[in-house]
């Protein structure tokens, strides 16, 4: 059973960089044909896909967030990381890690001074 666990600070100040980590257990992030996505849900809004890092390390980002988003991985720790730079209050959301039908429980991030 693959399990995903997001972690990171719950409060980030405007203009700073948001950094989150997704720790994967029960499976490898290098498993063929798997893509590990970051998805967020602002309060009162729908899910927004942010980007993905594939099993081979290749990445693809949402065009609307591409300039501020970076997804990386640490294969030795079986972790996938998200960085979102120059955050604004509208980046306040629950952030999820996802692969296929596997979801983390999500982590709340609030952007506020």
Describe this structure in words.
The protein has 113 residues and is mainly β. It has no helices and eleven strands. It has strands spanning 3-7, 11-12, 18-25, 35-41, 48-54, 59-61, 69-74, 79-84, 93-99, 102-103, 107-111. The strands form two sheets. Strands 2, 4, 5, 6, 9, 10 and 11 form a seven-stranded mixed β-sheet that branches. Strand 9 (93-99) and strand 10 form a beta hairpin. It starts with a strand and ends with a strand.
β-strand percent reads: over 45%
- CA distance, first residue to last residue: 39 Å
Please describe the biggest sheet, giving its number of strands, its sense, and whether it closes into a barrel.
7 strands, mixed
- The helix-strand sequence is EEEEEEEEEEE
Average pLDDT across residues? 97
Helix percentage range: under 10%
Structural class: mainly beta
Low-confidence stretches: none
Total count of helical runs of at least 4 residues: 0
Rg on CA atoms, Å:
13 Å
Beta strand count: 11
Q: How would you sum up the global shape?
A: globular
């Amino acid at each position: 059973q693959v399990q995903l666990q997001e972690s990171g600070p719950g409060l980030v100040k405007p203009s700073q960089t948001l950094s989150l980590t997704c720790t994967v257990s029960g499976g490898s992030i290098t498993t063929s044909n798997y893509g590990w996505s970051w998805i967020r849900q602002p309060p009162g809004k729908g899910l927004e896909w942010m980007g993905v890092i594939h099993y081979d390390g290749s990445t693809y980002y949402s065009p609307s967030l591409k300039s501020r988003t970076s997804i990386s991985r640490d294969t030795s720790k079986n972790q996938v990381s998200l960085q979102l730079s120059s955050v604004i209050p509208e980046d306040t959301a629950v952030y999820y890690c996802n692969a296929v039908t596997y979801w983390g429980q999500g982590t709340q991030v609030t952007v506020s001074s």
